[in-house]
Design brief:
- The chain is 38% helix and 18% strand.
- It contains 16 helices and 17 strands.
- It folds into 3 domains: 92 residues, Elongation Factor Tu (Ef-tu), domain 3; 233 residues, Rossmann fold, CATH 3.40.50; 125 residues, Lysin (Up-down Bundle), CATH 1.20.150.
- It is elongated, with a radius of gyration of 26 Å.
- The longest helix has 20 residues.
- The termini are far apart.
- The chain is of the alpha/beta class and 501 residues long.
- α5 packs across α6 and α14 packs across α16.
């Protein structure tokens, strides 16, 4: 608890916390201790989110207030606390250390370094719980967040300051989409925070190694509350990650926060609530489970220039069971977020990756957060793919199809294949535009599906050698002129000729 001691010493110098100071000291008594949660009596004036100190030296965080008792989660070893112990209210809310020193590091929800490297003293703190910025401080979300994933950037564009849910069954590639997005921010100047809640330590180690291998760890902070950590840590982790992100947002920077995943976060809160004897509602969750996630995700926004001009983009991940998107937690978070990417097991098993269900997936920001170049080549793509899937399902029962229908089905199959992408290999904007343009214009219609990957590789190679200036121009201008299209056509048809030969 050295970090919390450091925080309490520094807090007196920070005017932001002055409103949380309590003049009269308050003392209470521990009534019960259970699995990381304590029930106290006597603290009549204590506030939600306030820190308390036990005689053992451990700290606690107030999470429940009722007429005759106070519920507290213990931030440390709860086995040292016994019934009858005295407890003191400290008059401050919980805060976590923030700053550039955290970049490239792994921290726990209290901001302590847990990656085995040298600890760095951080004297700037941000409160874990904070009211979301008001409407007058916000501005419209219209700056794209480039994910490097063809299907996402073309069909479900994400803007800086947006909240886009990634939802699907276990093992459908949800985390892969989030990590590819982080890797794509290498040249975008976006600070990334990956918050792991209830994950295996082996998975977190793989994530850290992947980020290091792709040179993404330098601008990324990993907040880890693993499955072996107490539920109190799992409960706090997303709020801590958000607070760290808000520091950079307040400095005018763009931030991306990935919450992996909020299903396990809800499980941790349900466990705490049941220990606190709160009435169990639907699926045994407490009645305020919606507020648990709304007060977290509402903090994601894009600030106007007067408020600093920064942004915080949230990519929460939710796991479904048997594709049931209508269960309690997914429906709650869908109603909070600005859209969702629904990953389907059947599509994943069919080799379509990312396994996006185009019909259910949506971005409520849409074309407002899409570059002009992508709008030009992918304007009708989502509608065409949705129609193709409906037509493909219907045509299975039809023995004879007219030529127009066959042509439409062939084009849809090729476009679907063009959007398939290997994991951890994000594309630049120009590369995405070039491939989708070639598919949408019908240049791939005569190529067998089994050869499309080979053609794509050849086309990418030709563009990097013969069309390097064109790629750089599209990446810089983010638009496609008639001159650019002619240059595109020249290289695409040249590659096609070479391929046919």
């Amino acid at each position: 608890m050295k970090l919390l001691d450091q925080y309490l010493q520094a807090i007196d110098k920070d005017e932001r916390f002055s409103k949380f100071r309590v003049k009269a000291e308050q003392y209470g008594t521990v009534k019960e201790v259970k699995d990381g949660v304590t029930l106290l009596s006597g603290l009549q004036q204590v506030a939600f989110g306030e820190l308390v100190e036990f005689t053992s030296g451990s700290y606690g965080y107030v999470i429940d207030l009722s007429e005759d008792r106070v519920g507290v989660i213990v931030l440390g070893d709860y086995l040292k606390i016994s019934a009858g112990d005295e407890v003191k209210a400290l008059g401050y809310t919980l805060a976590v250390p923030v700053g550039e020193a955290l970049l490239g590091r792994v921290v726990n929800p209290l901001g302590e370094f847990v990656d085995g490297k040298e600890s760095i003293k951080v004297d700037k703190f941000y409160p874990v719980e904070k009211i979301a910025p008001s409407v007058v401080k916000r501005k419209p979300v219209n700056v794209p967040l480039h994910t490097g994933i063809k299907a996402v950037d073309a069909l479900i564009p994400i803007g800086r300051g947006q909240r886009e849910l990634i939802v699907g069954d276990r093992g459908t590639g949800k985390t892969t989409i989030a990590l590819d997005t982080i890797i794509s921010q290498k040249k975008e100047g976006v600070i990334c925070i990956y918050c792991a809640v209830g994950q295996k330590n082996s998975k977190i180690a793989q994530v850290i190694e992947l980020l290091r291998k792709n040179e993404a760890l330098d601008y990324t902070i990993v907040v880890n509350a693993s499955a072996t950590d107490p539920v109190s840590q799992q409960y706090l982790a997303p709020y801590s990650a958000c607070a760290i992100g808000e520091y950079f947002m307040d400095k005018g920077k763009d931030v991306l926060v990935v919450y992996d995943d909020l299903t396990k976060h809800a499980w941790a809160y349900r466990q705490i609530s049941l220990i606190l004897r709160r009435p169990a509602g639907r699926e045994a969750y407490p009645g305020d489970i919606f507020y648990l996630h709304s007060r977290l995700l509402e903090r994601a926004c894009r600030l106007n220039e007067d408020a600093g001009g920064g942004s915080l983009t949230a990519l929460p991940i939710v796991e479904t069971l048997e594709g049931d998107i209508s269960s309690y937690i997914p429906t709650n978070i869908i109603s909070i977020t600005d859209g969702q990417m629904f990953l389907e097991t059947d599509l994943f098993n069919a080799g379509i990756r990312p396994a996006l269900n185009v019909g259910i997936s949506v971005s409520r920001v849409g074309g407002n957060a899409q570059t002009k170049a992508m709008k030009q080549v992918a304007g009708r793509l989502k509608l065409d793919l949705a129609q193709y899937r409906e037509m493909a399902a219907f045509s299975q029962f039809e023995s004879e199809l007219d030529q127009e229908t066959k042509k439409f089905l062939n084009r849809g199959a090729k476009l679907t294949h063009v959007l398939i992408q290997a994991k951890n290999l994000p594309y630049s904007l120009a590369e995405e535009v070039m491939l989708i343009w070639a598919g949408g214009k019908g240049y791939l219609d005569d190529i067998p599906i089994r050869d499309i990957n080979q053609y794509e590789t050849r086309l990418m190679s030709n563009f990097k050698s013969k069309g390097k200036q064109l790629l750089e121009k599209i990446n810089k201008m983010r638009s496609l002129s008639e001159e650019d299209e002619k240059a595109l056509e020249k290289i695409v048809t040249a590659t096609l000729t070479y391929f046919k030969n």
